[in-house]
Amino acid sequence: MAITAGRPDVVPDGPLNPAVVFASTYHAGGPVAYGRDGNPTWDAFEAALGALEGGEALAFASGMAAVAAVLETLPVGAAIVLPRDGYTGTRALIEEAVDGRWEMRAVDVVDTQATLDACDGASLLWIESPTNPKMDVADIAALAAGAHDRGAVVAVDNTYATPLVQRPLRLGADMVVHSVTKLLSGHSDVVMGAVVARGAFVPALRLQRSLHGAVPGPMESYLALRGLRTLPVRLERAQANAAELAARLAKHPAVERVRYPGLVDDPGHERARAQMTGWGSMLAFDVRGGADAAEAVARSTRLIVHATSLGGIETTMERRHRWAREDLTPPQLLRVSVGCEDVEDLWDDLTHALRIGCGDIST
Question: How far apart are CA 289 and CA 346, in angstroms?
């Protein structure tokens, strides 16, 4: 589906790929009418992503625009339950809202019962699994069922896993959110987001996109679709690299802990095995020696890019605690977005950086 969905109709001498349509204005008489309401290049990307997730996809100008569209469907004063250590942008959006706009209930999403208790009287349960950056795994099916029993809508940020590894709609979620910027587009050259939903959620989200002007550019949509075509092969390679690096890091003397659900002793391993078809390409590890050692490791790589984004074809790494609102992230934790380089080159670079950052500990 990643390779075939969203193609133009097959006609003699017709193009294999959809064209980029640069248009703000359309002839009258159709359903679009204006550039904020639709674009054929969006349509192609949305068709492909919707097929992969099993719902109807809507493209947005960024991942945060997609998050905001979901939140804007909620009434004033609505309670939102979300992971206390999840993506900082989502938490910041809720925290920085006008007083009284929403009530935020931060939970340990790994604790299913405590999370469901927090859903009493809530309008939305927001789930990340695995979480960013601590790689915690939530029981999506149990949380979705319990939240629905309490009258809450369920949205899952599936950026880390992608629909090739995890399909939250099948697990009971109402909406799935992506930062398309990351793995879906996969080449660190697009800023874009998406929401995939079903039923009445779709027109409500489409209205939010149009009214707020949170629309993607045609060129970004074209690049995102082109990136999506190669997601299966990119993810296969990156996931294999991540599993190998996680296993090796777990034995390294300069590493306190590796956070990767593919490791059998990881706390989230069994949950991940039940709801994911793979382990993904994201991992995190805690460096012995504290924050200074971890920062030195992040700054000492030569192949691995020291950068804050993730999901590109290149491997990136950073110490997340250096950012605001990351108080609950261990200061020595390094988040790694594993790419498609040769795994031995990546390992050589990691061991080189650990030697520099940790000194005697790494020997």
Answer: 22
Measure CA 357 to chain center.
29
* Whether the Cβ atoms of residue 53 and residue 176 lie closer than 8 Å to each other: yes
134 is catalytic: no
Is 157 an active-site residue?
yes
With a cut of 80, say whether residue 362 has pLDDT above it.
no
Active site residue 251: no
Which among 362, 162, 137, 141 has a CA at the least distance from the CA of 263? 137
Between strands 316-319 and 333-337, the pairing is antiparallel
Annotated catalytic residue, options 167, 182, 319, 320: 182
Q: Of 7, 36, 84, 226, which one is the catalytic site residue?
A: 36
| Position 363 confidence tier, pLDDT thresholds 50, 70, 90 | low
**CA–CA separation, 266 and 47 (whole Å):** 36
Q: What pLDDT, on the 0 to 100 scale, is given for residue 98?
A: 92
Each residue's pLDDT tens digit, 260-319: 999 999 999 999 999 999 999 999 999 999 999 999 999 999 999 999 999 999 999 999
Residue 79 and residue 101 in contact, taking contact as beta carbons nearer than 8 Å: no
Active-site position among 85, 136, 157, 174: 157
Region of 201 on the Ramachandran plot (φ > 0 left; ψ -120 to 50 alpha; else beta): alpha
292 is catalytic: no
| Mean pLDDT of the chain, nearest integer | 97
Domains observed in the chain: 40-229 (3.40.640.10), 232-362 (3.90.1150.10)
